[in-house]
Protein 1
Amino acid sequence: MNKALLSPSMMCADLTRLEHILLQFEKEGVEYLHVDIMDGEFVPNITLGVDFCRLLRRLTVIPLDIHLMIVNPENKLKWFDIRPGELVSVHCESAVDIRGCLKYVRDIGANALTDVSPDTPLSVLDDLYGYIDGVLIMSVNPGFAGQRIIPNSFDKVRDLRARLAKRGITDKIIEVDGNISFENAAKMRDAGADIFVGGTSSVFCGDCIADNIARLRKILK
Ligand code: DX5
Ligand code: ZN
């Protein structure tokens, strides 16, 4: 099983304290910064954007984990100035040419993931395994922080791990995103997840980010 990595959801961060938060993340060795890009069409919300990605790259060396919840991602990937080593996830439900999107990301040297929303069956991935570095399993409906986890999300992660193992595939990332609380993180780790998007119910809950990260690390050992 891959090492458990943290990717705090930056739409949940207090942006008035952004630099302080990023310093804490660097000190705690946080591996990625999860940036939710929403266009108000694919999901009924508009959040962070291209300029925010540029700002983060100026402020920190922590690589971005860009979650694209947008229509026509094919035409917009080039706007993000994607860097080698970043994670970029594209919803399989949003793209006409998902393989083209994944190839674009991989050709840059970034990690290409496809996102699967709660109502989307894993069978959509059957012909994509050769094009991806991983899968982001949405455990809430994409669009808003602070939601409750959809109960069958744990089984979905377990099922994906089993499908991969059946094909002899062991190196794919499984990222989980949506109400990854301390309790849910433990269950998701047990189910086979390895990148955890921490939002309002873990990394950013209460007022001590460092304690929350230490608590997650202990749970995800
Ligand atoms: C929801 C976003 C998540 C969200 C996580 O569409 O993809 O990253 O911000 O926030 P919590 O952990 O509060 O669900
Ligand atoms: Zn997200």
Note: DSSP finds seven helices and eight strands in the chain.
Protein 2
Amino acid sequence: MERTFVMVKPDGVQRGLIGEIVSRFEARGLKLAGARLELLPEERVIEQYREHREKPFFPGLAAYIMSGPCFLMAWEGKGAVAVVRRMIGATNPAEAAPGSIRGDFALDIGRNVIHASDSPESAARELGIHFAPGELVDYKKIDESVIYE
Ligand code: IDP
Ligand code: MG
């Protein structure tokens, strides 16, 4: 089983999309291991987006992410990192497939509603930035026997 870090960005929170987004991951069969609504401090935004620190869009990105609360989640399941990336869709919502979260709910690359880790390595790193050890919950979900072979 794999865990991935997923975050509804401030535009998604303000637009009332938390429930819709959580529902999609639940319906897919993924298991919620932790969640928190939070106004992110600048240090953690810089840490999360450190690969983009020198890019021209970084100041705007950081201001957007800190413009309101984000909804932070850890989702668990078989191949969760890649599965969730496909569910959120392409970075630029104009190119995101219909049926994906960005393809259904966004239009602008600078307001693309959701973040998800892009590899198992970044998932481990990002979960470590936002969740304390022990904050994520290990439990058995009763539908596992019908979701997995
Ligand atoms: P990802 O979120 O699909 O992993 P990344 O390339 O890692 O995409 O970029 C991180 C975030 O930075 C994007 O989700 C988007 O919010 C923002 N971003 C990326 N490229 C641009 C851009 O060209 N203009 C404005 N914002 C951008
Ligand atoms: Mg990324």
Note: Residues 18-28 form the longest helix (11 residues).
Protein 3
Amino acid sequence: MNINKNYLNLNDSYLFSLIAKKVNEYKQQNPEKEIISLGIGDVTLPLTPAVINRMSKAVSEMGSAASFKGYGEEQGYGFLRRAVSGYYEQKGVGLNEKEIFISDGAKSDLGNILDIFDVNNTVIIPDPVYPVYVDTNIMAGRKIIFIDGNVKNSFLPMPDEELYGDIVYLCSPNNPTGAVYTKEQLKIWVDWALEKEAVILFDSAYEAFIQDSDLPTSIYQIDGAKNCAIEFCSLSKTAGFTGTRCGYTVVPKELERNGTSLNKLWLRRQTTKFNGVPYIVQKGAEAVFSKEGLAQIKDNIDYYLENARIITDTLNQSGIWYTGGNNSPYIWLKCPENMSSWGFFDILLSKYNIVGTPGVGFGNNGEGFFRLTAFASRDNVNKAMNRIQQSGSPFINI
Ligand code: PLP
């Protein structure tokens, strides 16, 4: 018996535990200080009334023999797939409900999708990046090519003639950088993938934060994308479903490789290894896409974006370089005075009692950068930014 030795190649994911350890030590030494976290990628506002009402009704339905539900379709109930399809219609994207697969969140599907690809495929991953793309490919033993995100390309890496690979991950709006690809940039990626017969795995978990109507909220708004891209989306950040768990993955019928439909392969994979998302959760998710539900989540997203604006106002005043914050809950800043990510973490904690996430935790190119998130209460964001502004020369000579 042999284990999967690829697992031994994984780096320990010590980022958030090291942050917690440092914060706890600081708290013990300074019990009187109030620490504000702008570091966590989890929502802080509760589920909206439309979702709660529909889920409560679904709970009652489960208690009556006439409306009880057992196993559902693995790919999701028709009512939710039609609701998602209606949501895409509003973006100008036509999808057949058979192209939509309901999931228990984007993270699972981003990992599971690799089942339908050969382990000998080469994978292209931007750096810095959401660590799940890297680790799931290391687990499978795939060859990874990193492409550089940096100040020069505003953390939006693009393909060049020499770039070759079979699978590429794109995340827009991006975690951790908050950067958003334009339609023109995505068109270049789509044309590249079509030419190389590669497949784009497009993570649009934060699409609902996009405010600028010129920016794409789905890769299928780009001509040709249905022939080369799979899209992963989630209700986690859109509608506060991080603990409730629901997302969706789109595999277009047009998408074929080696003369085989990827939609067919994914359906086969899901019906074999997945038994669907709870009925109660899917009913709550359906309510998100109702007129009332969409208005309510918009209020929550506006709340987070206003938090982001308050944070970026302070950065603007301090002359600090950053991406994100406009169409994203993440703000990715260059550490002042050429400090390292962890050096800035320590200063932010000890001088301002604010916790953020060191950029180096998202890849080598994150060194010297830092992620702040807008997932906090307005009070805490105001308090945190006041502390920085009142310090006289914010961030300079710290
Ligand atoms: N994709 C990105 C870029 C994320 O940041 C996250 C969560 O933080 C996910 C996917 C996973 O979301 P879910 O909660 O749907 O699994």
Note: The chain has a mean pLDDT of 96.
Protein 4
Amino acid sequence: MTSQRTRERLIARLQDQGITNFAVLDAIRSIPRHLFVDEALAHRAYEDTALPIGHNQTISQPYIVARMTELLLQGGPLNKVLEIGTGSGYQTAVLSAFASEIYSLERIKALQEKARQRLRALRMNNVVFRYADGNVGLQEKAPFDGILAAAAPAEVPQELLEQLAVGGRLIIPIGEDQQKLYRITRSEQGYHREFIEDVRFVPFRSGLR
Ligand code: SAH
């Protein structure tokens, strides 16, 4: 159920849905997603679907992880990345293959701890986990080449825009019931916003838990 064949089926599905970046597909092929969910759900880990991870949160759908990573990789180097919403740590693990330094913020301590253990076991050592509210980003480590939000705020937090490097990209779902995924790129002149597609994410919340 967690076999190579099951994983290949997932990769084929992602390609059918338009994921073309081979490095991203390779990362998804090699990262053991079954280790990012409870054992009882491990048999569903290579389905292209979000799954519960407790605390009312979900591990993102592989398609959306692939898509967001692909979007982040387009448009320039990716040294320093900020992720808002570690969750299971699965998206973080994928990012770990592409960026040199990743800062991942999570407001639910229990999820953060599990994610930290998983990445340690996989020897992904370029990730710094912070128990923090992502609303204000992480000023002390800014600017970032990429910022990726795994939860949807009603509007783009101003701090995240300000913490982008020139040339940096923010990939973020926006909206309450109906959500839209955007890529916002910072240039010398300002910000350029592109609509990507309709999506469904868990809500972006304020404060720590
Ligand atoms: N990509 C993750 C998805 C996690 S779900 C995965 O594949 O597992 C989104 C996560 O964002 C949840 O864990 C939630 O607690 C977190 N979150 C929501 N609002 C946040 C905020 N303001 N700051 C930090 N984390 C937040």
Note: The chain is about 30% helix and 25% strand.
